[in-house]
């Protein structure tokens, strides 16, 4: 029964873990006009997992630094505050995305890898198309599929019904809605609302599969939509539903997207994910 | 030995080897096999044409179909493969739903492959391409058998 599912799903959303206190504190500090590096260092010191991640990313091929960096202070100076902010978010998301997700058939860590890839592709798209999307795009991309963590279990229970509803030609989020009364995008948006994240982020998550249905137009939503489709096509975090989503022609037109944009972006994204590979090893211990 | 070809990669195998590639979306998976020499190769190419990034193609020809396929054949010849005996199969080249031309990278990958094979008089023995499914390939070099896993089902190709 759809109504039964919906109640159970929303109970899970209410019980979903909140962002750790240290991350909330760090994000506040980073956002201050004159961000206090000493205080940032102090909060990081109390969170060894986060510190390890900051250093691991700083030393990854992604940044191509000539010498290994061992201190948080130096890492923050080299990375800059915007990268530090992304890193803190990535680390928090990693902590909730470390399990395998039945239903979507995603092995442990694969949704996290997908989320990072979509973030990388989204930032690449912003550069490629010279868009102005604000610095929330990375976080929006990072969190776009967080709803799968809640919905996966329900899909697993009723996969036969879902497969029947999806057939081979219905967009997967429509099949989710048909069988469960809601979809992973909506569930993700509810989680972000619980976390009291900004409206633009909630919007991007809620409409990432069908941006043309949203009343307002947000460039970051369009970008996440395209970046997500591209990463699935590249096989990064492609689950049981495969590529069974519909790229929006409205969005393609709105962004002025051409085939060569997408292909160039594909090669850049794979390259960057290669540079980040050392960050993903042992990610479950982070 | 089990060898895994990642995205924009190629792996060669000899008797006793299994070649694997995971999660083909719009990428092309190409399996080439010489049953007599018992050698084979598995390509996982991402984009149709290298002109989009010639520098990258020089560094890694296996990113692109137009440079990856000829390189795969050359490597097979080096292992003693003979063009007359080669069995060629393709998988992947998937597509999201709808008619959005920009996202038809899979279709463009397959078109470039077919043109290349046709120009060089090579037959495509079998293919499992297109549609919205993700695919994983297991290629047994002892027997030449290819298994495609997709949507929780495993089928020979
Ligand atoms: Fe999604
Ligand atoms: Fe996604």
Number of helices of chain A: 17
Strand content of chain B: 35-45%
Percent of residues in helices of chain B comes to: 10-25%
The CATH topology assignment of chain A is: Hypothetical protein af1432
The tally of beta strands of chain B, per DSSP, is 10
Question: What is the count of β-strands of chain A?
Answer: 0
Let me know the average pLDDT of chain A: 85
Which chain pair has the greatest contact? A-B, 36 and 35 residues
Fraction in helix of chain A = 55-70%
CATH class of chain B: Alpha Beta
Report the radius of gyration of chain B as a whole number of Å: 14 Å
Please provide a brief summary of the model:
Chain A is built from 17 helices and no strands.
What does this structure look like?
Chain A is mainly α and 286 residues long. Chain A has one domain: Hypothetical protein af1432, CATH 1.10.3210. Chain A contains 17 helices and no strands. The longest helix of chain A is centred in the middle third of the chain and has 19 residues. Chain A is globular and about 55 Å long. Chain B is of the alpha+beta class. Chain B has a single domain, classed as 60s Ribosomal Protein L30, Chain: A. Helices cover 22% and strands 35% of the residues of chain B. Chain B contains three helices and ten strands, in the order E-E-E-E-E-H-H-E-H-E-E-E-E. In chain B, the strands form two sheets. In chain B, strands 1-3-8-9-10 form a five-stranded mixed sheet, with no helix packed on it. A five-stranded mixed sheet of chain B has the order 2-5-4-6-7. In chain B, strand 8 and strand 9 form a beta hairpin. Chain B is globular and about 45 Å long. Chain B starts with a strand and ends with a strand. The complex binds fe (ii) ion (2 copies). One fe (ii) ion binds next to helix 12 of chain A.
